[in-house]
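COURSE: Structural Biology Practicum
ASSIGNMENT: Worksheet 4, Part C
STUDENT ID: 0417
INSTRUCTIONS: Below are two proteins. For each, the amino acid sequence is given first, followed by its C-alpha cell string. Answer the questions at the end about the second protein only.

PROTEIN I
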Amino acid sequence: MLKIIKYLIMLLKDPKTYKWGTIGVFALICDLSLYKFLLNIIDMDLAKGAATFLGVNISFHFNRIWTFKSASSYFDDLKRYLALYIIAIIVNVAVNNFVFRILQDIDTAYFISLFVSVIIGYFGQRLWVFKNRAKEVR
C-alpha cells in the first residue's frame, strides 16, 4: 500500500501529469462537443465512438510530442496507442451504454464512461505506449 501511495505522490509531482491533464481537458471539450452534435444525427453508440475517436486522436498527437516527448518511431507509438485505444473505445462505448440503460441519463453515462477511459488511457500511455523504449534497445 505504501508503494502505491509513493507512486501517486510521484505522479502529482511530475509535470507530465499536468501536461497530460491539460491535453485531456482539451480533448474532452472536442469529444463532448462532437458527441452532443452527432446525437441529433446518428445513433448514440456511433456518436460516442466517433467522438471518442476524435478525443483519442487529439490526445495521441499532443501527448506524443509535448507530454511524453517520445523518442520512439511514430509508427511504433501509433501501433501501441491504437491497441490501447481500441480497447479503451470498446470499454467506453460499453460502459456508456450500460450506465445509460440503468440510469437513463445521457450526461451521467458519458462522464462515467469517460472516467473509465481516462484511467485506462493515462496508465496505458504512461507505462506502455510512450515509455521511452529507445533506452531499452542496447
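PROTEIN II
(use this one for the questions)
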Amino acid sequence: MSGFVVCINNDNNPASLIVGKVYRTLSDPAAELHHMLRVIDEDRSEPDGYLYPVAMFAP
C-alpha cells in the first residue's frame, strides 16, 4: 500500500527532496519500526524508493 507525504525538511538531501512537494511512500513495516519512510524521491532511479527519517515529512 502506498500513501503520500509532504517534505518539510531537506537539509541533508537537497538534490533528492524539495520542501513543500508531495511524495509517494511505499509500505515498509521494518523501516517504520526505525522511524523511517520509504519514499519515491526526485532521483527516481530506484523503483523501491529510498529511506528517509519520518521527521522530514508531514502527512
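ANSWER KEY EXCERPT:
Q1: The longest strand covers residues 2-7.
Q2: The chain has one domain: 2-58.
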